[in-house]
Batch of 3 targets.
Target 1
Amino acid sequence: MALAPIPKPIADLPWRVLWIVIALAAAGFLALYSVAPGGGGALMPYALPHAVRFGVFLALAIGLSRFRPATFSELAWLGYAGGMVLLVLTLLLGAIGGGARSWLELGIIRIQPSELMKPVLVLVLARFYAHMPPRELSRWAAIWPAGVLISPAILLILLQPDLGTASLIVLTTIALMFVAGLPLRLFIGGLVATAIAIPVGFSLLLPHQQERVLIFLNPEQDPLGAGYHITQSMIAIGSGGLFGRGYLNGTQASGRFLPAPHTDFIFAAIAEEWGLVGGLVLIALFFLLLRWGMKVSLDAKGRFERLAGAGLTLTIFFYIAINLMMVMGLAPVVGIPLPLVSYGGSAMLTVMICIGLLMAIDRQNRRDVRRA
């Protein structure tokens, strides 16, 4: 008996990247099962919710992929207005967790609006630069409107306070400006201005944020206090060696020596159990995901699609880069999770939205090739 043909909407999905995404989520599931409190592994409280959320958000990403990229351009300003309203409501009514008022309780769900602003700001900036004449890119008019757009959001996020999310948005914005074609001299001027402003910016940080920066520069200064996170993370990574201690045999996470092994420091827990080889496999999967995202951007015919694709890919890249640098002691601890691997609904939702939007652009690209 002949097998029934695969329905066209399913066959048309970019399965190569979907398998990469599924593999990353599966790695997160295994790690979250392992680091459950009590040792020995358990589905609750991390692994099972992680799997359920991933299934729901994967369906959302596939749903987003069915829309035309032009639709997201048209809705960008509406999304921006809605996101700003949510950020204001977060400051007024949000729940406090980890010392920050970053979450909104909406009945049975809890969301972090600052996370959702990341793809929204990418779409808004991509739309802005897509409509800007090339001759204007070298002028001041290419910079100040973007600053006006992102500054209110960054201010509201810093007031929570959430330095990690604000930093990621700034980095993505600067990178997107570069991709849009702004001349290098403007970035050099910006770097000089940033260097001059660093002492002022440091003085405006909250005490615990200043402590994180100082400890990053010298974690051995207080290994049992403020430097504990970085110190234990590097111990966990180093103790894994080449092939790791073995699944469910990690001592740093199961012994609760490693802080936040299910969120910020999950890569350290993975490296302890699976070693350098396991860590490199995970990094290779992220590389393949980012390579696909940049190919989607480069293959796009429209300027909005190219800029949006690059910005969405860069958003995922900065998640990965900041988290890995953080757990290896190369950056301050700023609370950035590892995409699709760490426990947490809002960050996973944001990344899956980025992937869904990239899939929509990829679908448009393939449609353009068939028409050519």
Target 2
Amino acid sequence: MDADINNRPGGPNLVVTCKTANTIQFFDAATLALTATLAMPGSTHELIQGTDGNTVYGSIYGGGIFGKNKDPDRRIAVLDLASQALVRTIDAGGTYAPHSVMMDRDGVLWVSAELGGAVLAIEPDAGNVTRIDIRGAAHWIAVSHSADKVFASFKTSNTVVAIDRASRSVAGTLAIPHGAEGIAVTPDGETLFVCAHRRGVVHEFDARTHALRATHDIAGAPGEANQLRRVRVSPDGRHVCVSSHVDSFAAVYEAATMKQVAGFATPKAPMGFGFAADGRHGFLCCHDAAQLVEFDLASGRITRQAATDAGCEFVIAY
């Protein structure tokens, strides 16, 4: 299976965004002990490692939440993992409330420009920013290298947009039943998963043809309430993990069959997933509870928890 630059195998350390506290925190993955706290210049939501593995880019979203932006920001933070330091920021070129961040294999940083109705392609070293008009408020993005596409989901409509990575232009749209939320691509780039907004389901699409292959229930979380749901595929491609924010619930699927193998209650408001180096455990940020949870991928059993600063949203194991 091809390596997914946006979901690397885990390592001995964790880095976590704590957006309400305007901090980023570092933990020892073996003990879940806090090792450092870094003050950020604004509310930082999502992180992605650069091509060198040591540089991390973080979206400085600004205040508020989707649709209720207070003092939206325009910056991307550039972090050095070795020194656990903020090196600089990149100006995205507009007050966009940047949110989702992904890398491509050429070192281009892809960013959702929520308030600009666009996705941005940023060359981090040169600072060049290309704005791609997608005519909607994209919150999440995902990259498929095998299909050579970037996908962006609209929280406010039943749509995911496909962008041609090479030409940086819109290549098509996918109709999403029940609204679009979190999205993820498998490590081989062939499958796109899209969580629904208005039902407890996750949709499975062919990343090349955009055909809907199947819709999978989230057993244990029917989720009739509109809510944020997120999905992530493990680096080895064996597991698909889905979180339901309002339901305080997470599910694990066997990727090969999409059989749900686990479902478990979480601390309040689960959001982003990360994966341990052993391939057997996942991490989950529980935003409202300010808790980082470690869980067993085979059973969904919570094995450990650690307190974080307020508003933990996203975690990377490195």
Target 3
Amino acid sequence: MTPTEQIDQLIASLGDWRGEMLAHIRACFLAADDNVTEAWKWMGSPTWVLNGNLAVANAHKEKVKVTFSHGAKLDDPDKLFNAGLTGNQWRALDIAEGDKLDKAALVAMVRRAIEFNRQK
């Protein structure tokens, strides 16, 4: 099974708001750049890659977490990140049921992550 098929299967298996949210998150990553690819890493986590890891997503019981590999190095003018703010490497976006995803801000963040990966 390809990583894309595994992510499709995960989204379908969730069967609740988390699957729908993960589908929206995935769409933002794929819309940011035509060269973004999907991977299946760390014992079953959707991961988006371009010149290195961009971010990984996990569906937890009460949230969907999107962790950017080099988030601490990225500007966040839209205040998208709301978790992992004290670390020196990653930053995350925790989304709970009922939260609204700022898709434009997420696409912009993905593009900043892509640019960071290209420069490193």
